[in-house]
Design brief:
Number of helices: 8
Helix content: over 70%
Structural class: mainly alpha
Radius of gyration: 40 Å
Number of strands: 0
Shape: rod-shaped
Number of domains: 1
Order of helices and strands: HHHHHHHH
């Protein structure tokens, strides 16, 4: 009987030596995989936290940019309203000039031209002057100013008598800076949404790594080598899947070791 037991033990030892995945090899592989998985779990958690920090920063930055953009928009509305009032006043002076010229009232003509000159000098912006064709220097140089203004009013282009606010591009120019700031805010918040999504993905990767860690931790519980190999194989599949999934997720644009 003792000889049979010894023979059986020797056979088992021989089989274990012949088998690549013997018990000692399984333990070494399990320990190595535990270490690798722990490191990868920490890395995924670290990168996910950076994405979370970037998300919060981008959301705050976007709110500030949106606030600035809205302020610039409201300021543009006020500026446009003031310019519209200026245009209405200029139109009134233009009508007075044309009427005085039509009735040959030289005094009224000179008075209306003088009013127009001084009003435009103080209130007419360069952009509006350009679109209506008003030449500040030529019309205020003291040389044939009345004739110059009459020629401007009677020009075939009709610029002098056409409201600049009928030009869509001119109206949009008031809000160009505000729109640019709001677009910038939208781009930043979109980056924040992307950071949020990437952070969630890294959280999922961490969960998968945790499953692999759990499986690797219970490998030693099983007495049967077959069961150990099955659990080890499942944990390895989880680990490989998590690694493949992780490398497809973009790294943070900034923060931590990423600058």
């Amino acid at each position: 009987m003792e000889d049979e037991k010894k023979a059986t033990k020797e056979e088992k030892k021989t089989e274990e030596k012949k088998s690549f995945l013997n018990e000692s090899t399984l333990e070494i592989i399990t320990v190595i995989l535990l270490g690798i998985t722990a490191l990868l779990t920490a890395w995924a958690s670290y990168v996910g936290s950076i994405h979370g920090g970037n998300q919060a920063t981008n959301y705050a930055t976007s709110n500030n940019l949106s606030s600035d953009g809205n302020s610039m928009y409201n300021s543009a509305v006020q500026t446009m309203t003031q310019d519209m009032d200026s245009w209405n006043t200029i139109m009134n002076y233009e009508i007075e000039i044309l009427y005085a010229d039509e009735t040959n009232d030289s005094k009224a003509l000179e008075a209306s031209v003088w009013k127009l000159q001084w009003f435009c000098q103080d209130n007419l912006t360069e952009d509006m002057a350009a679109i209506i064709g008003y030449d500040q220097e030529a019309f205020n140089d003291g040389v044939n100013d009345t004739e110059d203004i009459l020629n401007w009013l009677c020009d075939e282009s009709g610029k002098a008598l056409t409201s600049p606010f009928t030009d869509e591009a001119f109206v949009d120019s008031y809000f160009a800076d505000a729109y640019a700031k709001l677009d910038e805010a939208e781009q930043v918040i979109e980056q924040g949404r992307q950071d949020n999504a990437n952070g969630d993905k890294f959280s999922l990767v961490t969960v998968i790594y945790s499953v692999a860690l759990f499986l690797l931790g219970i490998v030693g519980v099983f007495k049967s080598q077959t069961n150990k190999k099955i659990v080890l194989a499942i944990s390895l599949v989880c680990l490989i899947f998590a690694v493949i999934f992780m490398v497809t997720i973009p790294l943070p644009a900034s923060g931590g070791i990423f600058g």
